[in-house]
Amino acid sequence: MTGEGEFIRNLLNNKEKDKAFKKLLDLYQERLYWHIRKLVITHENADDVLQNTFLRIYKSLPNFQQKSSLHTWMYRIAYNESLRFLEENKKKNHLSLDDVSRKYLNNLVDDAFFEGDEIQLKLQRILSELPEKERQIFQMKYYDDLKFREMEEILGIKEGTLKSSYYNTVKHIEKNMLAVELLSNNKV
Amino acid sequence: MKKLNNHMDSKLETGSQTTFDSKMHEMHSEELGFQVPKDYFSTSKIEILEKISNQKEQRLGFFSRKRIIWSVAASIAIFIALTVFKPNAIPSMDKIPAIVSDTIDQLKTNGLAQVEPEENDILITSLFVADNEIDEFVDNYVLEELVYEEVLAN
Q: Which of B55, B139, B152, B154 has its CA 20 to 30 A from that of A72?
């Protein structure tokens, strides 16, 4: 495979589009799934949103203007689809966006595709207690390994603000996780 | 807590991709307790491609149907205009190629030819359309593009 430029040209070329799109699925399906999963929490929700994300990507390819990288553009679509999903649930259940995420996190133990121990559950709880945006910033940086510059494009938040939010959240999590570890050591 | 430290901005090689994906999977599983069903990613890929393929077929069907409706509406408009302004110029129904009348009948039966052209549009259009242009339109467009395309598609 050659560079991203040629790959994008193939995606925009009617003859090559389907083949290139399959390659795109191979490359991005898993990472977009994990990005979505952290936002919508359960596997069932993530599966729905992932399918919608790729359908939207396919439909929107002719409009991709290459102002950002393909990578960032697709993350933005996945992020927007996840928010759209949470927003619909918020309306259905008359909850705030923060509450929708917390509701899913509280039901996490019942999810057949969650196998967390006490520590993992605690980390999920700490994350769920963070304000929505701070949680997203932390997850995008820490788990999705996105650059601050890319996050700025996806979230529309200035790089400086993203950096300070991320470092504060890391400190907060470390402090709380340390407390959990101390507690579990004392139990033993 | 682990860190991936492997940015994939423009890495399109499958080898490093597999490693990155498995590390990501491991990280989400170990730290957050998230699991996925066995073979989820391969089945999900097939489902996504099937959905895209279905949507493409639906869109093709929609455009084809839309073209038929407008083409038939245009043909009817021309015939009506000719009947009003140039009754002698219109061929009698038995001289219209059978394939055209059959197609129009079929479309009417199937409820596709429900577009009613605006009367004013027909009258205005008819003033600018010469007889030879109408013949050309019926021969070239209705026969060659519309009917043949539908025959080939089926």
A: B55
Which CATH class, in words, describes the domain spanning A116-188?
mainly alpha
SS3 for B8?
A: coil
Check if the beta carbon of residue A140 is closer than 8 Å to that of residue A146: yes
- Which ipTM was obtained for this model? 0.78
The second-level CATH assignment, the architecture, of A1-115 is: Orthogonal Bundle (1.10)
Q: Bigger pLDDT: B70 or A20? A: A20
Q: What are the Cα distances from residue B63, in Å, to B56, B60, B150?
A: 11, 5, 12
Give the pTM. Answer: 0.64
Interface probe, candidates A9, A14, A145, chain B, greatest B C-beta count within 10 A: A145
